[in-house]
Amino acid sequence: MSKTAIITDSTTALPEETVRELNITIVRLNLIWDGVTYLDGIDIKPEEFYGRLMASSTIPSTSQPSVAAFEAVYRPLIADGYDILVLPISSKISGTYDSALQASKEFPADRVVVLDTLQASLPLAILAIIAARSAQKGASLLEVTNLVKDHAARLRTLFVVDTLEYLHKGGRIGTTAKLLGSALNLKPILELKEGTVVAVEKIRTQRKALTRVLELAEEDAGKQGSLEFIGVISSDNPALAEELLASARGRFHVHEVIRGILSPVIGTHAGPGTIGLVYLKSKK
Predict the structure, then answer these.
(1) Over 90: is that where the pLDDT of 144 sits?
(2) Where are the beta strands (DSSP E) in the chain?
(3) What pLDDT is stored for residue 178 in this prediction?
(4) What pLDDT, in 10s, does the model give residues 114-141?
(5) Within 10 Å of residue 203's Cβ, how many Cβ atoms?
(6) Confidence class of residue 170 from pLDDT cuts 50, 70 and 90?
(7) Class of domain 155-281 as given by CATH
(8) What pLDDT does residue 181 have?
(9) What residues does 196 pair with on adjacent strands?
């Protein structure tokens, strides 16, 4: 039986119990704040992070894991007979993919695949879960890789930020700023599309924006109203995320649901007050 190990990064913010149950390996990104470096989700937890962010006069920066950090997790897995699938955050918003790829060159090419899914955070977590479940059933590296590619192409992530300030200062919105113009006081709907953040629509209130997010999901679900996976994610408002999830479950036939929180590294760029919907469109 094949042995395939799944490695992803800390932007997934996967719960520890899920990581243990599915035998997923997490490589941590770094957050640098006032001269101190923190491992994402280890040295600084989301609850502490968002409280500090809202009170702070400074905004942290982030950095990818080193090549050596990836080599350190590849080496024992290879020695133990595993093939490895690495699922890092989108190469268009982080250098993590490059670090993972450079590290893979120290090992046989057929043993380590670094796949740029163009995802981050909760959608990346969904892909890691799907991959790990398949690997536990004995799927080969090629089989798991193809499975992830299929699912990544059907994922959509729509989210609403309370302010564009953090995305703007972090340089993560690209053409979005141009598209939105003077919309900094509105509640824009944004999308993680082809690995980067793009603008969808400008809405005046957060609740209206979330209603519109559900309408966009309905368009994707079609007449059958079926979605394979639905996830909700928030930075610091789990109650509103639960409301969004309840509304989504009332509108769609859903196979599985997942909840998530934005890791400190992702929260640095999205900011407090962010909430989003992730869903896996059914095959046509």
Answers:
(1) yes
(2) 4-9, 24-27, 30-33, 36-39, 61-63, 83-87, 112-114, 155-160, 187-193, 196-203, 226-234, 253-261, 275-281
(3) 44
(4) 999 999 999 999 999 999 999 999 999 9
(5) 19
(6) low
(7) alpha beta
(8) 45
(9) 193
Main-chain phi, psi angles of 257, to 5 degrees: -125, 155
Q: Half-sphere exposure (CA, 13 Å, Cβ side) for 167?
A: 27
**Domain boundary assignment for the chain:** 4-29+64-152, 155-281
Other Cβ atoms closer than 10 A to 185: 8
**What is the pLDDT, as a whole number, of residue 177?**
52
**Three-state DSSP class for residue 57:** coil
**Which amino acid is present at 227?**
L
CATH 1.10.575.10 fits 4-29+64-152, yes or no: no
- What gap in Å lies between CA 267 and CA 284, rounded to an integer? 34
Closest to 145 in 3D by CA, of 110, 183, 193? 110
Residue-level pLDDT at 51? 93
Whether 246 contacts 238, CB under 8 Å? no
- Locate 69 and state its tokens: 């950090």
- Distance, CA of 185 to CA of 3 (rounded, Å): 51
Chain mean pLDDT for the chain: 92
Please, what is the end-to-end C-alpha distance for the chain in angstroms? 32
Q: How far apart are CA 153 and CA 237, in angstroms?
A: 28
**Which residue pairs from 139-146 have beta carbons closer than 8 angstroms and sit at least 24 positions apart in sequence?**
139/2, 139/4, 140/2, 140/4, 140/83, 141/2, 141/4, 141/83, 141/84, 141/85, 141/111, 141/113, 143/2, 144/4, 144/6, 144/85, 145/85, 145/113, 145/115
* DSSP string across 76-127: HHHHTT-EEEEE-S-TTT-SHHHHHHHHHTTS-TTTEEE---S--HHHHHHH
CA atoms within 13 A on the CB side of 88: 27
Instruction: Give the per-residue pLDDT at 282.
Output: 86
For 3, phi and psi rounded to 5 degrees?
-120, 110
Contact 3, 77 (CB under 8 A): no
